[in-house]
Amino acid sequence: MLKLEYNMKKIILFGKEDCGLCQGWKKKFENFSIPFSYFDIDDADNLTEFTLLGLTKIPTIIIGDKKFEGIKPSELSIDEIKKIIGI
Questions:
Q1: How far apart are CA 61 and CA 63, in angstroms?
Q2: Boundaries of each Glutaredoxin domain copy (predicted)?
């Protein structure tokens, strides 16, 4: 099982390779040089962690104590993300 370390500066993205929205988020973070950790829920350990966190939709973005489930890249701006993580 994963031992994710949650803090206000770390972005965690749960998704799947065949999820267009998930891939959109990966590209958005990469294009704006926003550091993040990606966990593919097709992996059994990642799916277990996803389930234990009570998550049900992908993509899910976790930033500190904030969770954004099933969110489209257009629904959360890079400026909002930078504000949340303090950069």
A1: 7
A2: 11-66
Look at residue 1 in the predicted model and tell me its pLDDT: 43
Whose tokens are 């389930």? That residue is 51
* Domain ranges, ordered by start, for the chain: 11-85
* % the chain with pLDDT above 90: 63
- Lay out the sheet containing 11-15: strands in order across: 37-40, 11-15, 60-63, 66-69
Q: Which fold has domain 11-85?
A: Glutaredoxin (3.40.30)
C-beta of residue 45 within 8 angstroms of C-beta of residue 1? yes
